[in-house]
Amino acid sequence: MGFIFSKSVNDSLKAQQEFMLMNSRLQLERQLLMQNQMRERQTAMQIAWTREFLKYFGTFFGLAAVGLTAGAIRKKSPGVLLPIVPLSFIFAYQYDMGYGTLLQRMKGEAENILDTQRTLLELPKGPLTYEELEKIRRSQSKFFIEK
C-alpha cells in the first residue's frame, strides 16, 4: 500500500516539475520577445526622431548656406562661407543616420567587437554576483534584521 502511494506521489512530483520547467521556459520566451519588441520600438523611435530632426536641420542648413553665400558675395570674402563646413558634416551625419547605412555599419562594428575584442566589454571588478548585490542591499537597508 505504501509503495503504491509513494509511486503516485513521485509521479505527481515529476509531473509538477515538468510543468514548472515548461512554465519557466514559456515565461523566459515571453520575456525575451517583450525585450526584443521594446528594443525594436526604441530603435524605430530613434530613427524617426533623427528623420524629424533632419527636416528642421536641413531647413536651417539650407537657409544658412544661402545666407552665408550671399554674405560672402556681398563682402567679397570667401571666409564668410567657413561655417558651412562643420554644418555640412552634421547634416551628412544626420542624413546617414536617418536614411543611410550608418545603423548597418554600426551593427557590423558592434558584431566585430563582440567577436574579436571581447575584453573591451568586461566590467570593472568582473560581473556582478548575487552575493555582492545582497551585501550592498544589507548595508543600505534600514529594515534588514540579521538572523
TrEMBL record:
GO cellular component: plasma membrane
Keywords: Membrane, Transmembrane, Transmembrane helix
Coiled-coil stretches noted in the UniProt entry, renumbered to this chain: none
Any Gene Ontology biological process: positive regulation of plasminogen activation
Pfam families referenced in this protein's UniProt entry, alphabetically: DUF2368 (PF10166)
Matches recorded under InterPro entries: Plg-R(KT)
Membrane-spanning residues: 53-73, 79-97
Domain of life assignment: Eukaryota
Stored PANTHER family: PLASMINOGEN RECEPTOR (KT)
Protein name in the entry: PLRKT protein
Organism field: Burhinus bistriatus
